[in-house]
Fold this sequence. Notes:
eight-stranded mixed sheet; alpha/beta; 11 helices
Amino acid sequence: MMMQQRSARRPWVVRIGMTVLLLSVAVVATVAYLGRDWIGNGIAAAPNAGRTFRFEDDPQPADFRALGIDEQLRVDVVGTCGRKASLSVWLVEPKTAPRGTVFVLHGVRSDKYWLKGLATQVAQQGYRAVLPDLPGHGRSSGDWLTYGACEASELKALLDELTKQGRVSGQVGVVGLSYGAAVGIQFAAVEPRIRAVVAIAPFSSLRTVVPGYVTHYLPVIGQLIPDSFVQQGVDRAGSLGNFEPNAASPLSAISRTSAQVLFIHGLADDHIAAAQSRALHAAAPSHSELVLVEGDDHFSIVGDRTHAIQVRGMQWLQRWL
């Protein structure tokens, strides 16, 4: 009797198992089929897509000075990609005559506000800190993100304009976080005036960083999506943003700059693995150094509990600027 009951249950178990399997296959197939557009839009669509900004609408002096910001600018730039961007820029001045000028670049889908503390730290070292909202972020216009492919030359145009206005003193450096770090390395590749870069948790290329984000935010389904579909999503991002995805590559850019680059990366980073900074350092061992921080992830690294940024990062600027 017991054997008969078990035998009777097996077809139902098999049917349930097959149903779950087929549903899983259907979900994965649907995600894979639609994934190219989902991934492409997720990569390239800027937070400020479709928005415009005017100087008269920017915060008033009393508002930004209350944050420790000395001056606010709006600068219109055109880079080699040909697109126009109106950039919102803050300046934080040192207490004495600037010994150099340092661009402080924020992460993806963030803005300059979140790095004002780091900018103040840079200014305390004697440098004029320049905080732009990168194109498409904060209060800067832009419909598409290109991960440095276009932003690098747009920052060069910003540097040119600030130089014309007499707002660039001494040699130029960059401190960047994540997306801003990757953009900063590419900025240095097109701008020989940049002598030093502190790159905090950068990615080595757009194509290498996206698969990790897919599996991180889709921990089950993401692992079942073939890399070829993910890369098609990257290609779709390039089509949407009118840029070549392969050009969004700090790994390629670092060989085209003589700037001294310090990489700081948390070993617990599961958004952008420390292996990406290792690869960047390995591509330019003669003009870079690597600091790996135990226990820090992609977000806690900014808290600088080990003072790697405060000590090693600021020493790097002092050494090379």
